[in-house]
Amino acid sequence: MMRGNLLLKAVKLIAVLGAGLLTTTVSSANANTQGANAGNELTYQPQLENQRDPNKYCAQCHKFNDEQFHGIHLTKKNPATDKPINCVSCHGNVSEDHRRGVKDVMRFHGDIFDGKTPMYSVQEQNQVCFSCHQPEKLRESLWAHDVHAMKLPCASCHTLHPKADAMQGIAHKDQVKLCVDCHGKQQELLESKTNPQPVIQDKDKK
Prior knowledge:
The chain contains eight helices and two strands; from the N terminus they run H-H-H-E-E-H-H-H-H-H. By secondary structure, the protein is mostly helical.
C-alpha cells in the first residue's frame, strides 16, 4: 500500500515537472519569435522612411538645415519627371564606398581661379543643371547664359544651395558687380602672365 502511494506521488511529480518544462519551452519560443519579429521591424521601418525621404541617408553624415542648405531647390520638382528634387537628383547615386570617403558623386566647382582641376568638366556639371533649367529659356532670359554656358560652370555665378536664386530679383548693378568681380580676376591673371614680376637679386649673395 505504501509502495503504491509513493509510486502515485512520483507520477504526479513527473507530470508537474513536465508541464513546467513545456510551459518554459513554449514561453522561450514565443520570446524568440517576438524578438526575431522585433528585429525585422527595426530594420524594415527605416527603409520605408528612407524611401519617403531620399535625403535621409545623406543627412546621416551631411548635417544641414533644409531651408539654408537646399533653399529653393528643395521646394521644386524636376519639370521632366515631375518628381521632387533631392540630393541624388543633382549629385547622383553613391556607392557603398562613399561612407569611407570615396568621392564618387557629382561635385560642382565654381571657382575657376583657385588653380584646382575640377573632378568633372564644365559640360558634365552644367548638364545636371540643364536637366531642369532649359538652355533655350536661359538664353532668352539673359544673353550671358549663351556666352558662358559651354565655358564656365553654372556654379561660377549661381549659388548651389541658395535660399533664393543667386541672380533672381537682385538689382542690375549687383549683377554687373558679379561680372566685374570675375572678369577683374581674369584681367589680373592675364596681366600677371604677360608682365611677370622682375626677379629681385640678392645683393649680399656672392
